[in-house]
Amino acid sequence: MTPLLQVKGLTKTYGRHIGCRDVSFDLFPGEVMGIVGESGSGKSTLLNSMAGHVVPDAGQVIFDTRDAGPRDTRAMSEPERRMLSRTDWAFVHQHARDGLRMGVSAGGNVGERLMAVGARNYGAIRASAIDWLDRVEIRADRIDDRPTTFSGGMQQRLQIARNLVTGPRLVFMDEPTGGLDVSVQARLLDLLRGLVRDMGLSAIIVTHDLAVVRLLADRLMVMKGGDVVETGLTDQVLDDPQHGYTQLLVSSVLQV
Amino acid sequence: MSDYNFAYLDEQTKRMIRRAILKGLAIPGYQVPFASREMPMPYGWGTGGVQVSAAVLCPEDTLKVIDQGADDTTNAVSIRRFFERTAQIAVTTATADATVIQTRHRIPEEPLRDGQILVYQVPIPEPLRFLEPRESETRKMHALEEYGLMHVKLYEDISRHGHIATAYAYPVKVADRYVMDPSPIPKFDNPKMEMAAIQLFGAGREQRIYALPPFTRVVSLDFEDHPFVASKADHPCGLCGAQDSYLDEVIVDDAGGRMFVCSDTDYCAGRQVDGHRGSDNKEYAA
Ligand SMILES: Nc1ncnc2c1ncn2[C@@H]1O[C@H](COP(=O)(O)OP(=O)(O)OP(=O)(O)O)[C@@H](O)[C@H]1O
Ligand SMILES: [Mg+2]
Ligand SMILES: [Zn+2]
């Protein structure tokens, strides 16, 4: 099977500081990869380098495109890359306000990606928006309200709907449950798990919450100081960590 | 002898502005940056339009200036006087007699013809500004033809009002390429933009010029199920009876009496000279 995403030797430095170094892995269709590690270990740098939000110093990010098969996204033209990021890719930010238009209604937020790829029927756009609000458990009668009137959990669910409406094949998520109350987190995780399963989504999820990866991720990468120090099936890594740093990470959670 | 160069601006500056205009004509709807000059009038008084007019005016031109369709408002009068003094050119209120027409917020009712230039005063040239304040991002959107956001604005309109409520500065797509702000003309005027005359747009504070060559395709954005409608008040003009002209509602007496009259004063006067009368016209009633 062709991997959906192949990352090869991805490196990003900030001057003399290392962001992430020589990261390589394959992600297969329908697979969810978790990236864990302490603060500053390079998780976001890696995610943003893959998603094209920052320009890596070296390496390849090869995506299996619908039209032309595997292509290095870094060699794509900017219009192609931007088109990809509004259609087959999605990015869920930790802070919903980074991923939403706060001055636009919930329906407009969900509809934007549809309009960006040429949807020109108001009724159809609205019907899609209502459908997606329902899938992320936001009542249809909130469709014309702005996200500023939503709770943190609702904003995050709206961001997810806005991203998934075009049926992307790969979703990048940076701490999607960060900053939310524990009970809200649990509900969001449940929802995410359902969506990932129902849509057969492939996803890369950055988090420092091991409970999140336990629930969502098939495989795990553990980062430290910009390097990937351990990878494997999630349960294997969590139940039988090999690297000393992973053992520390796992035990510090168990103590809590 | 005047103290100024012809039409106030020095030749160097006019050449720079003409280059921007030519570039604008070559790429219809594209916003060309230019080095806007201080003019002896405040921003908001049409300094962008005045600079464009100054750059295109020739001694043999005849100038007309309108503000909201009227030749006799303070703004229109002062700009007309400005060019009378600095360029000693002929001025007129008759649309047909003018070779250059500077306008704020209207397109004349009488169809413009080959050889005429319509110069718009533009406050905000960027149609995407409303939803995307970052200039770096809007520039990229234009470059990559990413205009989905424009429809988000129209979507918001419909979701709030049940129809596209945008009545002025209604966004258009030009020559199947650039999305353009037509300046705050009523959307009633949008279909007129596919015209025989040259149209030039000047934004002074924002330092942008854009242009439409004659008969450029200009399409008002809309949805399949909410098509663009060039609407106006559903009345005839009270003075000249015109059914097809854009109307202003004006208060006519202390008792709060109102009537609808053509916003294009020259058009209305011309029709009355030709013997047309509206139902509020005193001569008609008498
Ligand atoms: N824009 C930047 N300029 C300079 N250094 C940066 C920049 N962004 C990140 N870094 C550095 O790169 C390293 C990795 O940072 P990164 O944000 O990727 O970590 P992270 O694992 O996502 O951390 P957190 O869990 O706190 O979000 C850190 O040492 C950080 O200080
Ligand atoms: Mg981070
Ligand atoms: Zn009239």
TrEMBL record, chain A:
Annotated TM spans: none
Protein name: Putative phosphonate transport system ATP-binding protein
Molecular functions per Gene Ontology: ATP binding; ATP hydrolysis activity
Biological source species: Loktanella salsilacus
Pfam family, one: ABC_tran
Any one Gene Ontology BP term: organic phosphonate catabolic process
Matching SMART domains: AAA
PANTHER family documented for this protein: PHOSPHONATES UTILIZATION ATP-BINDING PROTEIN PHNK-RELATED (PTHR42764)
Automatic annotation (TrEMBL), chain B:
Catalytic activity: alpha-D-ribose 1-methylphosphonate 5-phosphate + AH2 + S-adenosyl-L-methionine = alpha-D-ribose 1,2-cyclic phosphate 5-phosphate + methane + 5'-deoxyadenosine + L-methionine + A + H(+)
The family this protein is said to belong to: Belongs to the PhnJ family.
Enzyme class: lyase
Record organism: Loktanella salsilacus
Organism taxonomic ancestry: Bacteria, Pseudomonadati, Pseudomonadota, Alphaproteobacteria, Rhodobacterales
Sorted UniProt keywords: 4Fe-4S, Iron, Iron-sulfur, Lyase, Metal-binding, S-adenosyl-L-methionine
A GO MF label: 4 iron, 4 sulfur cluster binding
Biological processes annotated in GO: organic phosphonate catabolic process
EC number(s) on file: 4.7.1.1
Protein purpose: Catalyzes the breakage of the C-P bond in alpha-D-ribose 1-methylphosphonate 5-phosphate (PRPn) forming alpha-D-ribose.
Pfam families the record matches: PhnJ
Coiled-coil ranges from the UniProt annotation: none
Protein name: Alpha-D-ribose 1-methylphosphonate 5-phosphate C-P lyase
Domain of life: Bacteria
InterPro entries: PhnJ
